Fold this protein.
Amino acid sequence: MQSSPIFGKRAFQLKRVLTEGLLTPLRELLPDDQILAAVEETGRVFRDRIYTPLVTFWAFMSQVLGPEKSCRAIVTRLLSGVVCVDGKGPSEDTGAYCRARKRFPEEALRKRASATALAAEAQVPLERRWKGRRVLLADGTGVSMPETKSLVKEFGRVRNLRKGFPVAKVVALVSLAAGVVIDAAIGRWRTPERELLRELWRSLLPGDLIVADRGFGSFTEIFLLQQRGEIGVGVITLADTTGMANPRQVRELTAKVLQRFPPPNDTFYTLHFHNTRGMG
């Protein structure tokens, strides 16, 4: 991806046009050489045209994070930057930008986002970690998208409706201390969230603690994680879900449990109560 002097000047100018204002802080977090390295690792080749990997990347970031979401608005901003450099501009048609965005490798976006998140998390002080461990929040959501045949075929509709927008299922790992998304997986709407979470095990480090609702847990997950050597007991819960015990019984039982089964390092007990019968 060698660039001529005029091409390099143009790309630099277009980047500044696209990142003025809202995206300005991202310039330091997303260096050009790292973006290009992520693209080159995928083996995708781009020619010296208006929509180079860098221009396409920043155009897409501007479209996603900026107030103007349409392709037309992004192309209009790009045209002003090209005219500033060359004295002339390309076609106002949005087709070239849309094709360039389609060519941009998704894997490069994922790797760059993950590397940026890890860099941000590395700056978190040790005292903000729970007992020195990295705490990750896992949760899922759905995102709708334009109704095209390819997207409907890829992701499907909610409850197999014949009409309506296609919806994808997204599961993400979020750093509790840094507030950044470490990794994410996307699948069909009907894909169970715990299956998508398995894809994110690739981002786990020794000692990580995942906090998630019970929909992510199953005996299958426990077995698979044991096979990987990446599971341990962090919390032991004593529960009175039918509300039978009174406060004295609770004190006596917890004292006996702690005396006979003291929790190992990095493990603690929790209590779960229901006051169904007013015993509390």
User: Anything to note?
Assistant: Residues 63 and 69 are 5 Å apart (CA to CA).
